[in-house]
User: What shape does this take?
Amino acid sequence: RAQAKVPRVVLILTGDAHSTAAFSAAFVEGMQQAGQVEGRSWRLELLLGEGEPARSAQHLKQAVASRPDVLVVGGLILARQALEATRTIPVVVATGGNLLEAGLVQSLARPGGNLTGISDLADEATVKRLELTRVALPKAARVAVLSNPEFPATARIEARLESAARQLGFAIVSAHATDRASMVRAIDGLRAGAPDALLVIGDALHTSNRRELIERVSALRLPVVFYWPDAAEMGALISYHPDVADNFKRAAGYVDRILRGERPGELPVQQPTRYELVVNIQVARRLGIRLPPEFLLRADRVIE
Assistant: This one.
């Protein structure tokens, strides 16, 4: 008897097995909750970039050539690369920047084409991190901003930060990096700008190298404001981020609907439903920072 073909879902992430385990597990859980049985109604192929963007891009190229039933990616850069590589394979972005302003969808309500997913609206969240920095560090005057100019949303985010900084009374010190080596040089160059804190704009480069980034900046006795869930545990003073694992679980719901026959272009782009503010008191004490009580009351979690 002929065997029915089991639909294949390829999930491509830029990190390593340790840093992405919670997200891939959340995705599988989401598929289970949707009634999908792995190995029977679908099968998963997980490809990891191990922190190397070129490796992730190569995985994407190979995945498209193999013609999976659904391609799931994490991050705005992989989302753009996926759309450039195929206009026929359904693509679900499990978490990423503003898909609309990046030009990857026609609208949030009706994306059109073959791509949909979860949009983190990174520009709004980054401005919120700057606002939180003002509350946490009321006497701060200069904030360094580390960004990757090759990230699709960088120019727009920097423009919004500049506008917000003027209203908040901050002077912005810009630092750019496109790979690990230039990231290290940018961090070493922070001494010259004499900033009071470093705010990092979300990008796969910074996510993959976040531990080294935070350690290097902390060695300069600068507080770090980051965007990734485990950043405060790694030594950032503040992390403010969406519930990324929940994003992956919700993305699985879209994969289920696509496997059942719905078109990605008709599935509205979703937004995160929950953000978490985490504050590391140990870092504050080590840097001699006294955080205002009203700021600590706003934290969802405080690391003592």
User: Anything to note?
Assistant: The two ends are 62 Å apart (CA to CA). The first helix runs from residue 17 to 33. The chain has a mean pLDDT of 93.
